[in-house]
């Protein structure tokens, strides 16, 4: 980061000397951008260096698995892929329920490399995709910011976004998720949109639509674009900034983007059938109406058209709005989906969709995490915003809207901090650039950046008068004030970069499937229990074995264990998840009925009590109960799992229902090691209330070294209550089976069989049995 | 061009192989002149393998010098035979050729070719080593976690031979005192985990009498079900070796649950399970990696010793009966230790299979040798009979026409097969420059394109602000 600042420092005076050559500034730009790329790439490699090149967490495992499938079977087979290994017995149509952009991107890279005979494993491509794309994001941010303000600001913004924790949290090496490439697509689409609105050229509009298409294929967050751009257009219309450029760029972008976005199977007809997309078409209709009115106005500029224009515009707006509302009521357009609705009402998910509320990254953001993810930029970006609003033009309206909406969304959900981060970087870059301009510029030089702005930014002559050349720069600051401010800001930037590295390294670079613990002497111990368990599953269970676990681990079981799961992280079927939750929350007998109904062979639970791992199933258990209660209110009651005083505990004071639940039993079955009193649960800091119990319907199949993952085998009906006897020994049973069948059979068959049964009953067999039992 | 040549070579090789086989399939006769004066046999069944080492004193009772003897393996055991060899009294290996004898179709015969003929009335001492895999059968076939593993061994009480044996003794090494049952044919004695039989005298040729032992054997019963060994030769000083190993605990199956509690509380729990094993790599091995499809297996240790690199490999989970595991082990060795050349002629001398663990048994071994691009005239000598698979091509960094790959297969491999193969090929050394030149050429073309693009104006229409 400091490198960027110094480069920029050099940039301004040098420009004066080499005024005619763009070569020098291009060199600096390229250098800074490649350094930003490098720094961004390097700071995301902590996980690879500390652990290994491995896919992280949960969702990336699914993405990796489907990418590997695509690479192996080809693109069309991937689109038609019906995954019978997930959501047993329902299965999942993967091709139609994913955003394939991520897989296509890494698949294409893999294909290119292999055509050039570079044999890189697809896993390594997946691992390093997000860090590589962070560099592209930096470049896209640079382009966006230079469109908005100046190239200097662009360089700042590029350097900021390269290392900022708010973005690196989602793009460290191994975090192979949609967001990794989607932020690039987002920034690039916005850049192209500004470009097209500035030039009014169809070329740039088409580019915007193509980039938007890429974004649609990559991430569900494309809805943000398709609402923000219409909002921009709408606000411009209200501000009376209608122009042919706006008309051309939006109508081209909307139509082409709409058609392209509908090519993604998962999106399908949503862009014309759901409320989320209606703003775009509404604004399109409005723009058309106003365009028509303007045209009429141009036919006779002298008439009383002004009032008509405003009135006509208002009428059009109201008509469009009413049409949308009407269509929604008629059921042609789907209303807001629950997930979307929860953005407006933060309490909505908690009441109606517990499955969304159960995910920690869907919680509202705390203030500290704003600072943690953005550091000093969270304080400086309002400055940039203020300048943008002060020197407003078409594209700065856009960035203001972008900033305001992103701030709102980031406040609603921790996860959406990701959409705020780019705009914060852009605006903070502008703020820092203004500051440096102010501090570093010699008094006598007549604003050289402004000149280059005019040259580079393709601004049309009509707009020039609106931009006031910074009046503050000329106030003449004292030397001491200048250097003082400069040093203070350099220190801030330095602290920023230190914080970014620290946050990325400590908070966001854990693969979470490999845990590391540190001993008293600083030695590192790796806890590899997850892979131990998944490795065991993949090698030592039947190929078609079905594993029941909470949905968090579905993708990992499928990806690493290669076994069929009942539920996974693609939480599309709430009732199926509730059924699994119900099995976990019921007592053993009731759970066994559910498990036989679902053909479960193995049950997998995560138990952190032995090592003090807090993200285990007992701590998540209350969500299982809540989700199960949502679907089965008669059988499961959340209150039963709390003590009378409303506490959630597992020790001897815990409620009976809790102690008898399957989850409790599977977690603590024969757990007697752990802390100082044997059987002490380190995570909850308590001694389990029920110990030494036996399991009737399940048996321990495998438990990992640190007890983190416990796998149980569901017994077949003939295995409990009585010991299984080989067929040869089953003398009495055979006749029992016979008589059962006989009861159903018809008369004459009965007599026949009875004869045979008598024949086959010599006393000799009994004698054999006795000897063998000895 | 190259594949065609390789094909021709391959066919030529097959023809040669078949021809040599035809010669060896010569029918031998059992010479009545030969008698066996004494056999001192030791049967080691303390590990998962059966290792029989017999010290045989042959006597020429006839009048003409004898140059060869026959070794026989009975029909019941011949499918388990993994290795057989013979040494003379100076510990020099003797040539062994598989052969048949009329009237004994069910018996496997090997002809031992002596270096010097045995004169009449003289005798010669030969040691024969035979290794049998999968001859120890767990009984019972399934045990619980806490139980010891019991195995059964059935064999021949007498040394199986086409000649008359005057006296013979057998020692069975069990390394355990807990023997459930064993064949008792006098004279016999049991001491210190050994059972001694004999001496028995005047046993007729092809006599079979059941020897049956049922005893405790908790040594690791690990079978490598498939081992794929990849040797990639680079002329830049490096040979990369990668082994893809599928392993299975082939002892008594685990019955009932696995309890981590018992396993952790008591270190004697799971006596038949395998927690870890040692793999020995060449002393010069470096950059060792040990991983599976889910990434690095973090439970391993490496010790660099004087004459080898010792890897203490722990599978992700302890292996109980019937449990399987698979992993990839790779390392680099410097090529000067294995690759010799004079001019354009190269000789690669490497192990066809390497150590996986002590007393290993490998069901199927596939070795692939990837030679540098442009190698021709490939000739290979195997230390033992293998099935050679069709050659193929392999493409990797900066390859244009692909590297030749030599593949061969062998089943039922044990430690005695750790022997060198010799591979000769021709490689014009000038081809070493091909890859650097390729990179240079590519960069040159790239820069040229950029220069041309920057210097020339390709636009159809000049933007307005540049027109003035």
TrEMBL record, chain A:
It catalyses: a di-trans,poly-cis-dolichyl diphosphooligosaccharide + L-asparaginyl-[protein] = N(4)-(oligosaccharide-(1->4)-N-acetyl-beta-D-glucosaminyl-(1->4)-N-acetyl-beta-D-glucosaminyl)-L-asparaginyl-[protein] + a di-trans,poly-cis-dolichyl diphosphate + H(+). Its main location: membrane. It is found in: Endomembrane system. Residues 546-603 form the STT3/PglB/AglB core domain. Coiled coil: none annotated. Residues 28-428 form the Oligosaccharyl transferase STT3 N-terminal domain. Keywords: Glycosyltransferase, Magnesium, Manganese, Membrane, Metal-binding, Transferase, Transmembrane, Transmembrane helix. It is an enzyme of class 2 (transferase). The chain crosses the membrane at residues 21-42, 93-113, 125-143, 149-167, 188-213, 219-239, 246-266, 278-296, 308-334, 370-389, 396-414, 420-440, 486-504. Its cofactor is Mg(2+); Mn(2+). GO terms for biological process: post-translational protein modification; protein N-linked glycosylation via asparagine. GO terms for cellular component: endomembrane system; membrane. Pathway: Protein modification; protein glycosylation. It comes from the Eukaryota. Its EC number is 2.4.99.18. It is a multi-pass membrane protein. GO terms for molecular function: dolichyl-diphosphooligosaccharide-protein glycotransferase activity; metal ion binding. Belongs to the STT3 family. This is dolichyl-diphosphooligosaccharide--protein glycotransferase.
TrEMBL record, chain B:
InterPro entries: Ribophorin_I (IPR007676). Pfam families: Ribophorin_I. It is found in: Endoplasmic reticulum membrane. Its main location: endoplasmic reticulum. The keyword Transmembrane helix applies. GO terms for cellular component: oligosaccharyltransferase complex. Pathway: Protein modification; protein glycosylation. The chain crosses the membrane at residues 437-456. Keywords: Endoplasmic reticulum, Membrane, Signal, Transmembrane, Transmembrane helix. It is a single-pass type I membrane protein. GO terms for biological process: protein N-linked glycosylation via asparagine. Component of the oligosaccharyltransferase (OST) complex. Belongs to the OST1 family. Subunit of the oligosaccharyl transferase (OST) complex that catalyzes the initial transfer of a defined glycan (Glc(3)Man(9)GlcNAc(2) in eukaryotes) from the lipid carrier dolichol-pyrophosphate to an asparagine residue within an Asn-X-Ser/Thr consensus motif in nascent polypeptide chains, the first step in protein N-glycosylation. N-glycosylation occurs cotranslationally and the complex associates with the Sec61 complex at the channel-forming translocon complex that mediates protein translocation across the endoplasmic reticulum (ER). All subunits are required for a maximal enzyme activity. This is Dolichyl-diphosphooligosaccharide--protein glycosyltransferase subunit 1. It comes from Danaus chrysippus.
